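Lecture notes, structural biology module. Today: joint structure prediction for complexes of four components.
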Amino acid sequence: MLQVILDHYNYWIAILLMMIGLYTVVARGNLVKKLVGLNIFQTSVFLLYITMGKVAGGTAPILDDRFTVYSNPIPHVLILTAIVVGVATTALGLALVVRIKESYGTIEEDELNLLDGEM
Amino acid sequence: MAVILDILSWFLLIGGSAFVIIGAFGMWRLPDFYSRLHPAGLTDTMGAGLILLGLLLQSEAFMVGIKLLMIAVFLMFTSPTSGHATARAALAAGLRPWQAPEEAKKLADENDGGNKDGAA
Amino acid sequence: MRHHRVLRIISKLLIPFIMLFALYVQFHGDFGPGGGFQAGVIMASAFILYGLIFGLENARKVAPPAVVTKLVAAGVLIYAGTGYMGLFKGANFLDYGALSKDPVAGQHLGIMIIEFGVGTTVAAAMITIFFLFAGRDR
Amino acid sequence: MIITLIDIALLTFMGATALAILRLRSLFAVVMLSGIYSLLAASMFVALDAVDVAFTEAAVGAGISTVLMIAVLALTGERERAPSHTMWLPMAVVVLTGAALIYATFDMPAFGAANAPVNLHVAPRYLNESFAEVGLPNVVTSVLASYRGYDTLGEVTVIFTAAVAVMLLIGGRKGDDAGIKNEPADDAVDDADSDGNGDTA
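The predicted structure, tokenised, for the full assembly:
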């Protein structure tokens, strides 16, 4: 039983974080809060990928004569680029938030829906 | 020799960790923002400094030691600066330091007395 | 601005070292952790620190938006251009082995150049985005 | 054993930080906590041997994205309004999705298994032969720049596109929907015309 928990704890926490992020995106009305939730979701996906690439007893994939077991480098490559792309897309989302605030005067979702209904 | 170094470095590491834990307790127990800055500074300087020193004694490669020293120097510059900037920002935002209830009462009384004498 | 003196002096002291560290990460990324993406972000953070402490106007003088905007595109062009170099030398697109007589040396050279392109784009993009957000009037 | 303890402690901290982000109303505190969350994630990546990723996450998550978020808060306000209606439907959706995903994890290979399918396909080839083929000790760099160069070219193009899109969205002056330049658009056009006719000033 303990072994099952230890084998899957990382996955479970990654999924828990994913769900917290998803809930923040779906249930909170403030657009900045939604973007922070999206970031939490994103980071938890990164965590899931990196967790899958870990090899027990391995070391970072930088070749050296002293080591023989390395962790899997492919998830690292995928996630490394994804993080920087993630901040670029977050900046795009924030730019949209700024424009929405300037056009509507609010960034709360239900107020935006009301304003859209009036137009 | 190696044993002495090991013992010394463990002593430093445990000491540093103790300072970090004390800092965390301070953050939790102290009443307001300004007093909480003190344990934060404790964590930064004593905690991180002792841990870095302990790691320095453990490092085998020369380059690792140099890097650890550079981190220590960097921390010595940045952590007081960030503490200073945080306190300044709080003061600029209008946050007043907390005072113990009886102290605050005494000060308020004195101020009232001063106001009676003064013009306003 | 008298009460910013400590911040100004410390950041003046640190910004050159942040940039030096960015260059170290950029060009040492082949041997240790690091590479263009990290170096670009660190280089951008040096400029962002400058902008936060000394004001946006001074930061715009140090890194003129017109130049930085062009660097965003220049990095992508360096990357793609390295790919086309391989094509001109008779190999596949992005095959750096053809850049030099010795394939391994060619690989090393190609990776160096494209990492530089990546670093340029990332740093310039982050600086541009920071300028735009911080310069937006209320 | 110690590694496992560090692992569990860091993951628990991350969970606590994420819950605090969900519950707090002050957006400034939320942004600060998201910086702490990124730093914890970076420490976690070090524990999982992904030093390059940890480096990037620390620089991006705890540095740049926090600065950007605070710059946006200065423009949009720092308080979040209380949610106006009950949140049973999102909660149900999230709980169901999470339960399904957790059910799926029981089919996943154990954490750290060396014979997991991910670790058997191309990773051994990169680890064994990249030094002879590319000549770099850091396998992540050789895979990123050489073996998967197309992928990285695409990612750099995405960053370029995002920067251009941000420029288009907020590069102009406030209330100036047509202008995409930083200088006042109308005046620039007037100047260009007047230069042709001679100086009007």
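Point to remember: Residues 101 and 107 of chain A are 6 Å apart (CA to CA).
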